[in-house]
Amino acid sequence: MPSPSQSEAVPAAPVHYARRGRVGVITVDNPPVNALGHGVRSGLAAALAAGLDDADADMLLLVCAGRGFMAGADIREFGKPSAPPTLPELVARFDAATKPVIAVLHGSALGGGLELALACHVRVALTGARLGLPEVKLGLLPGAGGTQRLPRLVGAAKALDLILSGEPVGAEEALALGLVDAVEERGSPLEAGLRAAGRLAAENRSPLPVSARTDRLAETDAALFIERRAELARRLPHLVSPHRIVDAVEAAVTLPFANGIARERALFQDCMDSPQRAGLIHAFFAEREVAKVPGLPAGTPARDIREAGVVGAGTMGGGIAMCFANAGIPVTLLDLSQEALDRGIATIRTAYEASAGKGRLTLAQVGERMALIRPALSHDSLADADLVVEAVFESLEVKQAVFRKLDSVCKPGAILATNSSTLDVDAIAAATGRPQDVLGLHFFSPATIMRLLEVVRGAQTSDTVLATAMALARRIGKVGVAVGVCDGFVGNRILRQRGREAMALVEAGASPEQVDRVLTGFGFPLGHFAMTDLAGIDVGWRIREERRKAGDPEAEAPDWLDVLAERGRYGQKTGAGVYRYEPGSRKPLPDPELAALIAADRSRRGIAPRPVGDDEVRDRCLYVMVNEAAKILEEGIAARPVDIDAIWLHGYGFPSWRGGLLFWAEREGLGRIAAAVQRYQRDIGGPQWCPSALLLKCAAAGRPIGC
Length: 707
Ligand code: CAA
Prior knowledge:
Distance between the termini: 47 Å
Shape: globular
Helix content: 40-55%
Largest sheet: 8 strands, mixed
Strand content: 5-15%
Bound molecules: acetoacetyl-coenzyme A
Structural class: alpha/beta
Radius of gyration: 28 Å
């Protein structure tokens, strides 16, 4: 590349080199997130060479255009051969640069982007920048020197905290840690960088590359790695990459830099080759893919939601109101009695204060959020709301009455949403004169924590209303997934079948603890029965009672779970359910009384228990879910397998390293699953084992489900 003059810029899109005074400026401009794909890597290599050759440049500046610095390697290239220069090669060239290089970090500086900055001689962050190494979330470790350079800057213990959590830190914290050399409060990245270059020139010194520093390594506590390994073995036994991360950071402390880099490379390759990497990257893209709803034209205008309303100040309604307040949206919380309202507001305040107690919120933020939640007793208070979510008792008549009332008080164009988890959204919409403005917004409990939001599109819901709900989901930090109307929508419909099977396995001879152990062994954070205890046995019991009363042919016959509910054993909230709980503890403890109850239930039904193997538990619990998921696709209730994957990942704790229910099913083998479903239909029977035609068809054709 020729040496440019002051006014010329040599375009090497997506990377440019130009000179400002005696500073050579390398600019990366690769929207949306300046990912380090092949074009950027080769552009950076060329621009660096140009800068080093430029006799009029005393030092170099690395800046990015757009909303952030580089967000890391281009994840879409993973799994394919990496064209040179690879990221580690590029990083090594910056490390070996014969002129000082200053990196200016703004917005997100993540993964390989931060690793490149670590190989620069000086790092400057703009206020508001977020710096992190999130590779662990993708089943990887920082593979471009990050595990070797970060400990040299911030110490091994802090480096492990940052790399194992994958969470970014802000500019001020980065400065306090020694991760950056200065924080700039004003100006563009270029302006901030030029100021830093001026300071460096004035100091007239040549900063050492990070790879040459060892001072912070010397302070490493000998017990550090032993402790972290023990903690990981306890907390994350399933995951590959966190354990490799500890090995890599240990290598930074025990080996010379070049050997540490070689060790990092080998460990990185282990992670890259692991199926967990593929699963986690599928989960990353699934979260983004679901935002693009098939059939909803990109650019469909969304309505502005400036004010929200929630009807019902119970646990769910209060949680939903908090979701709006957390996103800065004023919300009117309505209930019919002062007592219910007071209780709801008090619960919200307690929850916020608990967050403040844990240091997650300041007291000022608690005050701000509480001020955004306006309690109300009259529906008229909802007249200005742009969107109202109803979260009242799960009864069609009650909800229809609420919607009639909302229709009469809410302004034209206001969106009316139901949080129902089972009822027919179309029947609710029919109670209004604006069915095009009605849809389901199915939040999951606890609403402030669970990221899933099923956006239920009714027969008449308009495109604008759907687009508004999807945009709102993102704004309040949820993963919105558009689904169609059916009993239980997508998530709970699949859960119901797993529940049936879990009960059938116990009936056959398994214990609830065995079922839960197999599911947690698979990677679910909670087993089926522990989750039932958490959600409350009474919830399912009431739904089953309703179904039995309504004569639903698929209604489950009364069983030992119903007996528990009749005895007031609702789960965690009553200190006993399927398991027992010590006061104040959430740890499920086996209960001999339950074993006796189950034994009595079996003998009442004339069932002689048999030993049930763990493999049978696993296959039946999971294959029944896949079969139901395939039926959901067949019926068009979910548009794509990725929608079902995202629903189970974000609403039900499906292990993210397995990618999602249907991503996992492909790897398990659709042929194997289809054959098992047919066998279970023959041997066990029941509607849950009626095979999905789509599953059988895809298995027979050897093609992925949904294609
Ligand atoms: N590679 C490729 N595409 C990426 C990407 C990446 N690293 N990061 C984001 N994108 C894409 C997204 O898929 C999305 O694409 P679509 O618009 O087509 O859906 C687009 O960029 C915008 O992303 P978001 O919707 O997530 O935008 P946001 O503003 O909400 O968040 C972000 C921006 C914080 C950077 C977020 O995208 C993010 O966290 N990205 C991942 C960062 C990451 O994990 N980096 C590490 C990569 S691994 C690595 O670098 C390891 C190594 O050593 C080799």
